[in-house]
From TrEMBL:
It is an enzyme of class 3 (hydrolase). Its EC number is 3.2.1.39. One of its GO terms (cellular component) is side of membrane. It comes from the Eukaryota. Keywords: Disulfide bond, Glycoprotein, Glycosidase, GPI-anchor, Hydrolase, Lipoprotein, Membrane, Plant defense, Signal. It catalyses: Hydrolysis of (1->3)-beta-D-glucosidic linkages in (1->3)-beta-D-glucans. Residues 1-32 form the signal peptide. This is glucan endo-1,3-beta-D-glucosidase. Belongs to the glycosyl hydrolase 17 family. Residues 374-458 form the X8 domain. It is found in: Cell membrane. GO terms for molecular function: glucan endo-1,3-beta-D-glucosidase activity.
Length: 458
């Protein structure tokens, strides 16, 4: 069969399969993933294009949450495959209740960037119920409904979901976790209609649980996932070994009280600062690394929580960078995993071991020495569709692509360049390591630097 025809046929099959896979990711608790909150309240941050390239090539992070709809940032993440969540500021909420405004906002802020930028979620406001602004609060659900209607009109409602994140201040009671309930008044008049909207649109409920803001010197081990005696819930008989599970289960209990316990919960923000004021206990780089690394392991373990067993949780760590212009105490400016020059404040396993392990880097052709190990990787700037065709071609030949399937050792980062790197190298290694076996219509090049990382072996 002609190779181009073969590519086209496989691409068609892959598109149909992608719809099935997309549907599966919408089921509650199916897949955990680690994302990052990308804040910009600073005057020393790298350019968005540098940030996007850094995340794609040097980390395993494949989801980003923004606090606005900055067009430069949205453009920077085009063709990376990284999932992007954007936020509409609270002061825009009353305007969004008007469909004409929602349509115009969508036309200006979303449609120019999709599908090149993988925008998956729009958040209407941030912790709106905690603002005590009645206009914002009672406009929230109508604004979400209006924005969803605008997305339907633009045929984007299946690609982009609408939600809003909440602080734990929405709870009037959280202890014990099984007695969690929403604040009276808001529960019936705001939260119940909001949950009805999320159920109808298959969207998640977003919360910002921060054990950092709930711990004391006596509960530091409990907050950091360290061994401890736990906290016992006499109603259910469950013993809680960490504060995050207790916070999540309190939210779950409140949702269950309103008969909405099947809706997926997403952790929109959580983190731990690496520096604080001298009076603060447990605020240092070691504690921050401990919290975030234990967090990553826990939410992706599949253990779930006592009231939500066998679940994983989509989780966004706060934050990508230390932000030097944030107001408040010292800790507010030191939640970042990275300094503005993109060096790690501490290491929690999101960095790939070497620059070469990022996969989409541009390997330079070289004159290989006798017996020297070689690998085939995509060139920088290679067309995404061409790289996808490479994946389809190699895996369609029956070669072993299990490592880049969901759950495989090389599935993360879940991007086209990363998966193409693995597939192209599989073909190259199996075909005799001839230079022409790494051509792939001039999208591949040979390197002598091992791109393996973590459990992903090339």
């Amino acid at each position: 069969m002609d190779k181009n025809l073969y590519y086209a046929l496989l691409a068609s099959i892959f598109r149909d399969l992608s719809l099935v896979l997309l549907a599966s990711t919408l089921l509650p608790g199916v897949e955990g993933a680690i994302g990052i909150n990308y804040g910009t309240v600073a005057n020393n941050l790298p350019q968005p294009a540098q940030v996007a390239q850094f995340l794609l090539e040097s980390t395993i992070i494949n989801r980003v949450k923004l606090f606005d709809a900055n067009p430069e940032i949205l453009k920077a993440f085009a063709h990376t495959g990284i999932e992007v969540t954007i936020t509409i500021p609270n002061d825009q909420i009353p305007n969004l209740t008007k469909l004409s405004f929602a349509q115009q906002w969508l036309k200006e802020n979303i449609q120019p960037f999709t599908p090149s930028t993988n925008i998956v979620r729009i958040l209407v406001g941030n912790e709106v119920l905690s603002t005590a602004n009645k206009l914002f609060i009672y406009s929230l659900v109508p604004a979400m409904q209006s924005l969803h209607t605008a997305l339907v009109g633009a045929s984007l409602d299946r690609r982009i979901k609408v939600s809003t994140p909440h602080s734990l201040g929405i709870l009037s009671n959280s202890s014990p976790p099984s007695a969690g309930k929403f604040r009276q008044g808001y529960d019936v008049h705001v939260i119940k209609p909001l949950l009805s909207f999320l159920r109808a649109t298959n969207s998640p409920f977003l919360v910002n649980p921060y054990p950092f803001f709930g711990f004391s010197a006596d509960t530091l081990d409990y907050a950091l996932f360290r061994p401890n005696i736990g906290v016992f819930d006499e109603i259910t008989g469950h013993n809680y070994s960490n504060m995050l599970d207790a916070q999540l289960d309190a939210v779950f209990s409140a949702m269950k009280l309103l008969d909405f316990d099947e809706i997926e919960i997403v952790i929109a923000e959580t983190g731990w600062p690496s520096k604080g004021d001298s009076s603060q206990v447990g605020v240092d780089a070691e504690s921050a690394a401990e919290y975030n690394s234990n967090l990553m392991r826990h939410v992706n373990s599949g253990d779930g929580t006592p009231l939500m067993p066998n679940r994983t949780f989509e989780t966004y760590i706060f934050a990508l960078f230390n932000e030097n212009l944030k107001p408040g105490p010292t800790c507010e400016r030191n939640f970042g995993l990275f300094e503005p020059d993109m060096t790690p404040v501490y290491n929690i396993g999101v960095l790939r071991p070497t620059a070469s392990s990022s996969n989409p880097v541009n390997p330079r052709p070289f004159a290989p020495e006798e017996g020297l190990t070689k690998w085939c990787l995509p060139r920088t700037g290679a067309d995404m569709e061409a790289l996808q065709r490479n994946i389809d071609y190699v895996c369609g030949l029956g070669m072993d692509c299990g490592a880049i399937k969901e759950g495989g050792e090389c599935f993360l980062p879940n991007t086209v360049p990363a998966h193409a790197a693995y597939a192209m190298n599989v073909y190259y290694q199996a075909s005799g390591k001839n230079d022409y076996d790494c051509d792939f219509e001039e999208t591949g090049a040979i390197t002598n630097v091992d791109p393996s990382y973590g459990m992903c072996k090339y």
